[in-house]
Protein backbone atom coordinates (compact mmCIF):
# COMPACT_ATOMS: atom_id res chain seq x y z
CA UNK A 1 0.00 0.00 0.00
CA UNK A 2 1.29 3.44 -0.82
CA UNK A 3 -1.17 6.29 -0.18
CA UNK A 4 1.51 8.93 -0.74
CA UNK A 5 1.92 8.45 -4.48
CA UNK A 6 3.50 6.11 -7.01
CA UNK A 7 7.06 6.58 -5.87
CA UNK A 8 8.27 5.26 -2.56
CA UNK A 9 10.00 7.99 -0.59
CA UNK A 10 12.39 5.66 1.12
CA UNK A 11 13.02 2.84 -1.37
CA UNK A 12 15.32 0.77 0.75
CA UNK A 13 14.75 1.28 4.47
CA UNK A 14 17.06 -0.31 6.99
CA UNK A 15 15.52 -3.35 8.62
CA UNK A 16 15.92 -4.16 12.27
CA UNK A 17 15.18 -7.38 14.08
CA UNK A 18 12.13 -7.67 16.29
CA UNK A 19 12.38 -8.14 20.03
CA UNK A 20 11.27 -11.22 21.93
CA UNK A 21 7.75 -11.46 23.29
CA UNK A 22 7.29 -10.39 26.85
CA UNK A 23 7.59 -13.43 29.12
CA UNK A 24 4.43 -14.14 31.09
CA UNK A 25 5.13 -14.58 34.78
CA UNK A 26 3.06 -16.18 37.53
CA UNK A 27 2.31 -12.72 38.93
CA UNK A 28 0.77 -11.71 35.60
CA UNK A 29 -1.79 -14.48 35.96
CA UNK A 30 -2.73 -13.47 39.50
CA UNK A 31 -5.86 -11.31 39.45
CA UNK A 32 -5.16 -10.04 42.95
CA UNK A 33 -1.99 -8.22 41.93
CA UNK A 34 -2.47 -4.78 40.38
CA UNK A 35 -0.26 -4.37 37.34
CA UNK A 36 0.63 -0.77 36.56
CA UNK A 37 1.14 0.19 32.94
CA UNK A 38 4.79 0.11 31.91
CA UNK A 39 6.69 1.16 28.81
CA UNK A 40 6.91 -2.43 27.53
CA UNK A 41 3.12 -2.67 27.57
CA UNK A 42 2.83 0.57 25.59
CA UNK A 43 5.51 -0.68 23.20
CA UNK A 44 3.56 -3.89 22.61
CA UNK A 45 0.50 -1.81 21.69
CA UNK A 46 2.30 0.13 18.96
CA UNK A 47 5.17 -2.10 17.72
CA UNK A 48 2.98 -3.91 15.20
CA UNK A 49 1.47 -0.81 13.61
CA UNK A 50 2.35 -0.90 9.91
CA UNK A 51 4.28 1.76 8.07
CA UNK A 52 1.97 3.50 5.54
CA UNK A 53 4.48 2.82 2.70
CA UNK A 54 6.07 -0.54 3.44
CA UNK A 55 4.65 -3.89 4.52
CA UNK A 56 6.80 -3.55 7.61
CA UNK A 57 6.03 -2.71 11.22
CA UNK A 58 7.12 0.44 13.01
CA UNK A 59 9.32 -1.78 15.17
CA UNK A 60 11.10 -3.33 12.19
CA UNK A 61 11.82 0.14 10.81
CA UNK A 62 12.96 1.42 14.21
CA UNK A 63 10.30 4.14 14.05
CA UNK A 64 9.27 3.16 17.56
CA UNK A 65 11.64 1.91 20.21
CA UNK A 66 11.13 0.70 23.77
CA UNK A 67 13.70 3.17 25.10
CA UNK A 68 11.75 6.15 23.69
CA UNK A 69 8.58 5.48 25.69
CA UNK A 70 7.95 7.03 29.10
CA UNK A 71 5.06 6.08 31.39
CA UNK A 72 4.09 7.80 34.62
CA UNK A 73 1.13 6.06 36.25
CA UNK A 74 0.95 8.61 39.05
CA UNK A 75 0.44 11.62 36.80
CA UNK A 76 -1.31 9.55 34.07
CA UNK A 77 1.24 10.70 31.49
CA UNK A 78 2.53 8.70 28.58
CA UNK A 79 5.09 10.09 26.17
CA UNK A 80 6.06 8.32 22.97
CA UNK A 81 8.83 9.56 20.72
CA UNK A 82 8.96 8.18 17.20
CA UNK A 83 11.74 8.44 14.65
CA UNK A 84 10.83 8.86 10.96
CA UNK A 85 12.98 6.70 8.66
CA UNK A 86 14.14 9.78 6.73
CA UNK A 87 14.29 13.46 7.87
CA UNK A 88 11.82 14.75 5.26
CA UNK A 89 9.33 11.88 5.50
CA UNK A 90 5.91 13.15 4.41
CA UNK A 91 4.24 10.29 6.26
CA UNK A 92 5.43 11.46 9.67
CA UNK A 93 2.12 13.07 10.68
CA UNK A 94 0.18 10.01 9.56
CA UNK A 95 2.47 7.69 11.52
CA UNK A 96 2.14 9.87 14.62
CA UNK A 97 -1.64 9.93 14.24
CA UNK A 98 -1.72 6.13 13.96
CA UNK A 99 0.24 5.82 17.20
CA UNK A 100 -2.10 8.30 18.90
CA UNK A 101 -5.24 6.56 17.70
CA UNK A 102 -3.95 3.14 18.75
CA UNK A 103 -3.17 4.40 22.26
CA UNK A 104 -6.39 6.43 22.64
CA UNK A 105 -8.43 3.35 21.77
CA UNK A 106 -6.47 0.89 23.91
CA UNK A 107 -5.74 2.87 27.07
CA UNK A 108 -8.03 4.09 29.86
CA UNK A 109 -9.24 7.65 29.24
CA UNK A 110 -7.34 8.95 32.29
CA UNK A 111 -4.05 8.86 30.37
CA UNK A 112 -2.66 11.99 28.72
CA UNK A 113 -0.87 10.73 25.64
CA UNK A 114 1.87 12.85 24.05
CA UNK A 115 3.27 11.65 20.72
CA UNK A 116 6.27 13.58 19.42
CA UNK A 117 9.02 13.16 16.88
CA UNK A 118 12.40 12.15 18.35
CA UNK A 119 14.26 15.48 18.61
CA UNK A 120 16.45 16.15 15.61
CA UNK A 121 15.06 13.40 13.39
CA UNK A 122 12.77 15.42 11.09
CA UNK A 123 13.07 18.69 9.18
CA UNK A 124 9.66 19.99 10.31
CA UNK A 125 9.45 18.31 13.70
CA UNK A 126 8.12 21.41 15.49
CA UNK A 127 5.17 21.84 13.11
CA UNK A 128 4.31 18.14 13.17
CA UNK A 129 4.50 17.97 16.97
CA UNK A 130 2.21 21.00 17.27
CA UNK A 131 -0.34 19.41 14.97
CA UNK A 132 -0.25 16.05 16.78
CA UNK A 133 -0.70 17.83 20.14
CA UNK A 134 -3.75 19.82 18.97
CA UNK A 135 -6.63 17.58 20.04
CA UNK A 136 -9.17 19.68 18.15
CA UNK A 137 -7.38 19.14 14.84
CA UNK A 138 -6.83 15.47 15.67
CA UNK A 139 -10.57 15.11 16.41
CA UNK A 140 -11.46 16.78 13.12
CA UNK A 141 -8.99 14.60 11.22
CA UNK A 142 -10.46 11.45 12.73
CA UNK A 143 -13.90 12.45 11.42
CA UNK A 144 -12.43 12.25 7.91
CA UNK A 145 -13.51 8.81 6.68
CA UNK A 146 -10.69 8.46 4.13
CA UNK A 147 -8.02 9.26 6.67
CA UNK A 148 -9.47 7.04 9.39
CA UNK A 149 -9.61 4.22 6.81
CA UNK A 150 -5.89 4.54 6.13
CA UNK A 151 -5.11 4.74 9.85
CA UNK A 152 -7.24 1.68 10.60
CA UNK A 153 -5.34 -0.25 7.94
CA UNK A 154 -2.00 0.71 9.47
CA UNK A 155 -3.21 -0.25 12.93
CA UNK A 156 -5.18 -3.39 12.38
CA UNK A 157 -3.57 -5.44 9.66
CA UNK A 158 -3.00 -8.86 11.17
CA UNK A 159 0.30 -8.98 12.95
CA UNK A 160 2.94 -11.10 11.17
CA UNK A 161 3.40 -14.69 12.28
CA UNK A 162 5.65 -14.87 15.30
CA UNK B 1 -15.78 25.88 45.32
CA UNK B 2 -18.75 23.52 45.45
CA UNK B 3 -19.79 21.18 42.65
CA UNK B 4 -23.54 21.84 42.88
CA UNK B 5 -24.60 19.64 39.98
CA UNK B 6 -23.34 17.30 37.25
CA UNK B 7 -25.38 17.18 34.05
CA UNK B 8 -25.06 13.94 32.12
CA UNK B 9 -26.46 13.11 28.71
CA UNK B 10 -23.90 13.80 26.01
CA UNK B 11 -22.16 10.88 24.36
CA UNK B 12 -18.43 11.54 24.19
CA UNK B 13 -16.53 14.78 24.47
CA UNK B 14 -18.40 17.97 25.37
CA UNK B 15 -16.68 20.94 23.74
CA UNK B 16 -18.63 23.93 24.98
CA UNK B 17 -21.17 25.32 27.47
CA UNK B 18 -22.87 28.71 27.06
CA UNK B 19 -25.31 30.68 29.25
CA UNK B 20 -28.33 32.51 27.96
CA UNK B 21 -28.18 36.26 28.83
CA UNK B 22 -30.74 35.79 31.62
CA UNK B 23 -28.54 33.15 33.28
CA UNK B 24 -31.42 30.67 33.44
CA UNK B 25 -30.43 28.30 30.66
CA UNK B 26 -27.31 26.50 29.48
CA UNK B 27 -26.61 25.14 26.02
CA UNK B 28 -23.98 22.42 25.68
CA UNK B 29 -22.59 20.71 22.59
CA UNK B 30 -19.99 18.18 21.51
CA UNK B 31 -18.92 15.33 19.32
CA UNK B 32 -22.34 13.61 19.49
CA UNK B 33 -23.62 16.36 17.10
CA UNK B 34 -26.36 17.37 19.54
CA UNK B 35 -27.07 20.60 21.38
CA UNK B 36 -28.57 20.04 24.82
CA UNK B 37 -30.52 22.76 26.60
CA UNK B 38 -30.71 22.78 30.40
CA UNK B 39 -33.03 25.06 32.35
CA UNK B 40 -33.01 26.02 36.01
CA UNK B 41 -35.99 25.36 38.26
CA UNK B 42 -35.20 26.71 41.70
CA UNK B 43 -31.58 25.79 42.16
CA UNK B 44 -31.56 22.69 39.98
CA UNK B 45 -30.93 22.44 36.28
CA UNK B 46 -32.90 19.89 34.30
CA UNK B 47 -32.80 18.74 30.69
CA UNK B 48 -35.09 20.94 28.64
CA UNK B 49 -34.52 19.92 25.01
CA UNK B 50 -32.14 18.22 22.62
CA UNK B 51 -31.50 19.96 19.31
CA UNK B 52 -30.39 17.34 16.81
CA UNK B 53 -30.11 17.00 13.02
CA UNK B 54 -28.72 20.51 12.63
CA UNK B 55 -25.19 19.36 11.85
CA UNK B 56 -23.45 16.43 10.19
CA UNK B 57 -20.32 16.55 12.34
CA UNK B 58 -19.05 17.66 15.77
CA UNK B 59 -20.60 20.87 17.15
CA UNK B 60 -17.71 22.90 18.50
CA UNK B 61 -19.47 25.88 20.07
CA UNK B 62 -22.87 27.47 20.69
CA UNK B 63 -23.58 31.16 21.36
CA UNK B 64 -26.76 32.92 22.55
CA UNK B 65 -27.86 36.18 20.97
CA UNK B 66 -27.98 39.17 23.39
CA UNK B 67 -31.82 38.96 23.40
CA UNK B 68 -31.75 35.26 24.27
CA UNK B 69 -34.07 34.29 21.40
CA UNK B 70 -31.41 32.86 19.08
CA UNK B 71 -28.66 30.26 19.44
CA UNK B 72 -25.89 29.99 16.85
CA UNK B 73 -23.94 26.72 16.57
CA UNK B 74 -20.52 26.27 14.91
CA UNK B 75 -19.71 22.84 13.50
CA UNK B 76 -16.86 20.85 12.00
CA UNK B 77 -19.26 20.33 9.05
CA UNK B 78 -18.17 23.83 7.89
CA UNK B 79 -21.56 25.43 8.60
CA UNK B 80 -23.03 27.62 11.31
CA UNK B 81 -26.70 27.05 12.19
CA UNK B 82 -29.00 29.64 13.77
CA UNK B 83 -31.81 28.33 15.96
CA UNK B 84 -34.76 30.49 17.07
CA UNK B 85 -37.74 29.93 19.34
CA UNK B 86 -40.44 31.79 17.43
CA UNK B 87 -42.49 28.59 17.30
CA UNK B 88 -42.15 28.16 21.06
CA UNK B 89 -39.18 25.85 20.89
CA UNK B 90 -35.77 26.21 19.29
CA UNK B 91 -35.73 25.31 15.60
CA UNK B 92 -33.02 25.69 12.99
CA UNK B 93 -34.23 28.20 10.40
CA UNK B 94 -30.96 29.42 8.93
CA UNK B 95 -27.66 27.80 7.98
CA UNK B 96 -24.64 29.96 7.19
CA UNK B 97 -22.29 28.45 4.63
CA UNK B 98 -19.03 29.65 3.15
CA UNK B 99 -16.16 28.41 5.26
CA UNK B 100 -13.97 25.80 3.55
CA UNK B 101 -13.27 23.73 6.68
CA UNK B 102 -14.38 23.22 10.26
CA UNK B 103 -16.02 26.23 11.92
CA UNK B 104 -14.37 26.59 15.33
CA UNK B 105 -16.19 29.44 17.03
CA UNK B 106 -19.17 31.79 16.76
CA UNK B 107 -20.07 35.00 18.62
CA UNK B 108 -22.75 37.75 18.57
CA UNK B 109 -22.03 41.47 18.86
CA UNK B 110 -23.50 43.17 21.94
CA UNK B 111 -26.15 45.03 19.93
CA UNK B 112 -27.14 41.86 18.08
CA UNK B 113 -26.32 43.43 14.73
CA UNK B 114 -23.44 41.12 13.82
CA UNK B 115 -22.48 37.47 14.04
CA UNK B 116 -18.85 36.40 13.58
CA UNK B 117 -17.44 32.95 12.80
CA UNK B 118 -13.93 31.57 12.35
CA UNK B 119 -12.52 28.41 10.83
CA UNK B 120 -9.57 26.14 10.21
CA UNK B 121 -9.56 27.75 6.75
CA UNK B 122 -7.74 30.67 8.53
CA UNK B 123 -10.52 33.17 7.87
CA UNK B 124 -12.87 35.18 10.09
CA UNK B 125 -16.32 36.00 8.66
CA UNK B 126 -18.59 38.79 9.86
CA UNK B 127 -22.30 38.36 9.09
CA UNK B 128 -24.84 41.17 9.31
CA UNK B 129 -28.07 40.04 10.93
CA UNK B 130 -31.07 41.02 8.84
CA UNK B 131 -34.80 40.45 8.96
CA UNK B 132 -36.49 37.09 8.30
CA UNK B 133 -33.59 34.70 8.83
CA UNK B 134 -31.34 36.64 6.50
CA UNK B 135 -27.65 36.80 7.26
CA UNK B 136 -25.52 38.74 4.84
CA UNK B 137 -21.77 38.28 4.75
CA UNK B 138 -20.31 41.70 5.64
CA UNK B 139 -16.64 40.70 5.53
CA UNK B 140 -14.27 37.81 4.95
CA UNK B 141 -11.08 38.59 6.85
CA UNK B 142 -7.90 36.72 5.95
CA UNK B 143 -5.56 38.21 8.53
CA UNK B 144 -4.43 35.04 10.31
CA UNK B 145 -1.95 32.64 8.73
CA UNK B 146 -3.27 29.54 10.54
CA UNK B 147 -6.38 27.86 11.95
CA UNK B 148 -8.51 30.42 13.89
CA UNK B 149 -9.68 29.01 17.23
CA UNK B 150 -11.91 31.62 18.83
CA UNK B 151 -13.82 34.81 18.07
CA UNK B 152 -15.33 37.15 20.67
CA UNK B 153 -16.98 40.58 20.41
CA UNK B 154 -16.17 43.48 22.71
CA UNK B 155 -18.79 43.92 25.51
CA UNK B 156 -20.02 47.28 24.12
CA UNK B 157 -18.41 48.22 20.82
CA UNK B 158 -18.42 46.57 17.42
CA UNK B 159 -14.86 45.38 17.95
CA UNK B 160 -14.02 41.75 17.26
CA UNK B 161 -11.14 39.71 18.69
CA UNK B 162 -9.82 36.44 17.29
CA UNK B 163 -7.31 33.88 18.62
CA UNK B 164 -5.30 31.55 16.40
CA UNK B 165 -3.00 28.54 15.99
CA UNK B 166 -0.56 31.13 14.58
CA UNK B 167 0.05 32.17 18.25
CA UNK B 168 -1.47 35.65 17.82
CA UNK B 169 -4.64 37.50 18.78
CA UNK B 170 -6.04 40.04 16.32
CA UNK B 171 -8.54 42.86 16.75
CA UNK B 172 -10.88 44.07 14.03
CA UNK B 173 -13.26 46.98 13.64
CA UNK B 174 -15.72 48.13 11.08
CA UNK B 175 -14.38 50.60 8.55
CA UNK B 176 -17.61 52.33 7.63
CA UNK B 177 -16.06 54.35 4.78
CA UNK B 178 -14.84 51.19 3.04
CA UNK B 179 -17.77 49.06 4.23
CA UNK B 180 -15.28 46.47 5.41
CA UNK B 181 -13.73 45.12 8.59
CA UNK B 182 -10.07 45.87 9.17
CA UNK B 183 -7.39 44.39 11.40
CA UNK B 184 -6.13 47.29 13.56
CA UNK B 185 -4.10 45.43 16.18
CA UNK B 186 -2.12 42.18 16.44
CA UNK B 187 -1.24 40.92 19.91
CA UNK B 188 2.01 38.93 19.89
CA UNK B 189 3.54 37.31 22.95
CA UNK B 190 2.21 33.76 23.32
CA UNK B 191 4.62 31.09 22.09
CA UNK B 192 2.00 28.56 20.96
CA UNK B 193 -1.67 28.28 19.93
CA UNK B 194 -3.99 30.84 21.55
CA UNK B 195 -7.11 28.82 22.37
CA UNK B 196 -9.43 31.41 23.83
CA UNK B 197 -9.88 34.97 25.02
CA UNK B 198 -12.19 37.04 27.19
CA UNK B 199 -12.82 40.78 27.61
CA UNK B 200 -13.25 42.29 31.06
CA UNK B 201 -16.48 44.06 32.02
CA UNK B 202 -15.65 47.42 30.47
CA UNK B 203 -13.74 46.03 27.52
CA UNK B 204 -10.47 47.86 28.14
CA UNK B 205 -8.62 44.66 28.98
CA UNK B 206 -8.40 41.23 27.42
CA UNK B 207 -7.35 37.89 28.92
CA UNK B 208 -5.93 35.19 26.62
CA UNK B 209 -4.95 31.56 27.24
CA UNK B 210 -2.65 29.31 25.29
CA UNK B 211 -1.05 25.95 24.59
CA UNK B 212 2.07 27.55 26.09
CA UNK B 213 0.33 27.05 29.50
CA UNK B 214 0.21 30.78 30.29
CA UNK B 215 -2.54 33.36 30.66
CA UNK B 216 -1.83 36.89 29.48
CA UNK B 217 -3.60 40.13 30.35
CA UNK B 218 -3.62 42.84 27.69
CA UNK B 219 -4.53 46.49 28.22
CA UNK B 220 -5.88 49.02 25.77
CA UNK B 221 -4.02 52.30 25.30
CA UNK B 222 -6.21 54.79 23.47
CA UNK B 223 -4.79 57.65 21.40
CA UNK B 224 -3.58 60.38 23.74
CA UNK B 225 -3.16 57.99 26.71
CA UNK B 226 -1.47 59.39 29.80
CA UNK B 227 1.10 56.57 29.88
CA UNK B 228 2.65 58.00 26.73
CA UNK B 229 2.27 54.80 24.68
CA UNK B 230 2.46 55.84 21.02
CA UNK B 231 -0.65 55.09 18.96
CA UNK B 232 0.24 55.19 15.27
CA UNK B 233 -2.68 55.46 12.80
CA UNK B 234 -4.76 56.90 15.67
CA UNK B 235 -5.86 53.40 16.68
CA UNK B 236 -5.77 51.93 20.17
CA UNK B 237 -2.66 49.91 21.00
CA UNK B 238 -2.95 46.78 23.15
CA UNK B 239 -0.01 45.77 25.32
CA UNK B 240 0.61 42.70 27.45
CA UNK B 241 0.68 43.96 31.06
CA UNK B 242 0.75 40.63 32.91
CA UNK B 243 1.70 36.99 32.24
CA UNK B 244 0.45 34.25 34.58
CA UNK B 245 2.92 31.39 34.21
CA UNK B 246 3.76 28.36 36.32
CA UNK B 247 0.18 27.72 37.38
CA UNK B 248 -1.08 25.38 34.66
CA UNK B 249 0.24 21.88 33.99
CA UNK B 250 -0.91 21.59 30.38
CA UNK B 251 -2.67 23.44 27.55
CA UNK B 252 -5.26 26.00 28.70
CA UNK B 253 -8.32 25.49 26.50
CA UNK B 254 -10.61 28.25 27.72
CA UNK B 255 -10.83 31.36 29.84
CA UNK B 256 -13.82 33.29 31.23
CA UNK B 257 -13.69 36.75 32.81
CA UNK B 258 -16.71 37.33 35.08
CA UNK B 259 -18.39 40.68 34.48
CA UNK B 260 -20.04 40.58 37.94
CA UNK B 261 -17.14 39.59 40.21
CA UNK B 262 -14.12 40.30 37.93
CA UNK B 263 -12.80 36.79 38.70
CA UNK B 264 -11.01 34.88 35.92
CA UNK B 265 -11.57 31.13 35.49
CA UNK B 266 -9.47 28.81 33.30
CA UNK B 267 -10.14 25.37 31.80
CA UNK B 268 -7.01 23.24 31.55
CA UNK B 269 -5.85 19.99 29.95
CA UNK B 270 -4.63 18.86 33.39
CA UNK B 271 -8.32 18.34 34.39
CA UNK B 272 -8.31 21.35 36.75
CA UNK B 273 -10.28 24.58 36.95
CA UNK B 274 -8.40 27.56 38.37
CA UNK B 275 -9.69 30.89 39.66
CA UNK B 276 -7.64 34.11 39.55
CA UNK B 277 -8.32 37.41 41.27
CA UNK B 278 -6.68 40.75 40.63
CA UNK B 279 -4.38 41.98 43.35
CA UNK B 280 -5.57 45.56 44.02
CA UNK B 281 -2.32 46.45 45.78
CA UNK B 282 -0.35 46.42 42.56
CA UNK B 283 -1.52 50.03 42.27
CA UNK B 284 0.13 51.02 39.03
CA UNK B 285 -2.41 50.21 36.33
CA UNK B 286 0.38 49.46 33.86
CA UNK B 287 1.76 46.64 36.02
CA UNK B 288 -1.25 44.58 37.07
CA UNK B 289 -0.96 41.35 39.01
CA UNK B 290 -3.35 38.46 39.56
CA UNK B 291 -3.32 35.88 42.33
CA UNK B 292 -4.32 32.25 41.97
CA UNK B 293 -7.06 32.05 44.63
CA UNK B 294 -8.36 28.53 44.01
CA UNK B 295 -7.41 25.34 42.14
CA UNK B 296 -10.04 22.65 41.72
CA UNK B 297 -7.83 19.63 40.98
CA UNK B 298 -9.66 16.83 39.15
CA UNK B 299 -12.61 19.12 38.47
CA UNK B 300 -13.31 16.62 35.70
CA UNK B 301 -11.92 13.16 34.93
CA UNK B 302 -10.40 14.38 31.66
CA UNK B 303 -9.41 17.66 29.96
CA UNK B 304 -11.63 20.64 30.83
CA UNK B 305 -12.66 22.23 27.53
CA UNK B 306 -14.73 25.22 28.56
CA UNK B 307 -15.58 27.42 31.55
CA UNK B 308 -18.39 30.00 31.59
CA UNK B 309 -19.51 32.36 34.37
CA UNK B 310 -23.24 32.81 34.83
CA UNK B 311 -23.97 36.39 33.60
CA UNK B 312 -26.54 37.05 36.36
CA UNK B 313 -25.71 34.88 39.40
CA UNK B 314 -22.36 35.93 40.94
CA UNK B 315 -19.90 33.09 41.43
CA UNK B 316 -21.83 30.45 39.47
CA UNK B 317 -19.64 28.67 36.94
CA UNK B 318 -20.38 26.02 34.30
CA UNK B 319 -17.74 23.72 32.83
CA UNK B 320 -17.53 20.78 30.45
CA UNK B 321 -15.00 18.11 29.61
CA UNK B 322 -13.76 15.31 27.39
CA UNK B 323 -15.28 13.02 30.06
CA UNK B 324 -18.76 13.83 28.69
CA UNK B 325 -20.00 15.77 31.74
CA UNK B 326 -21.28 19.30 32.19
CA UNK B 327 -20.74 20.56 35.74
CA UNK B 328 -22.08 23.49 37.72
CA UNK B 329 -20.02 25.11 40.44
CA UNK B 330 -20.59 27.78 43.08
CA UNK B 331 -17.60 29.78 44.28
CA UNK B 332 -17.70 30.93 47.89
CA UNK B 333 -17.09 34.60 47.17
CA UNK B 334 -16.77 35.59 50.85
CA UNK B 335 -13.71 33.34 51.15
CA UNK B 336 -11.77 35.07 48.40
Automatic annotation (TrEMBL), chain A:
It comes from Diaphorina citri. GO terms for biological process: chromosome segregation; protein maturation. It comes from the Eukaryota. This is MIP18 family protein galla-2-like. The keyword tRNA processing does not apply. Pfam families: FeS_assembly_P. The lineage of its organism: Eukaryota, Metazoa, Ecdysozoa, Arthropoda, Hexapoda. Residues 41-116 form the MIP18 family-like domain. Belongs to the MIP18 family. The gene is LOC103514263. GO terms for cellular component: cytosolic [4Fe-4S] assembly targeting complex. Keywords: Chromosome partition.
From TrEMBL, chain B:
Keywords: Repeat, WD repeat. Pfam families: WD40. GO terms for cellular component: cytosolic [4Fe-4S] assembly targeting complex. SUPFAM superfamilies: WD40 repeat-like (SSF50978). WD repeats lie at residues 7-39, 52-93, 96-129, 141-173, 187-219, 297-336. Gene3D superfamilies: YVTN repeat-like/Quinoprotein amine dehydrogenase. GO terms for biological process: iron-sulfur cluster assembly. Essential component of the cytosolic iron-sulfur (Fe/S) protein assembly machinery. Required for the maturation of extramitochondrial Fe/S proteins. Belongs to the WD repeat CIA1 family. This is Probable cytosolic iron-sulfur protein assembly protein Ciao1.
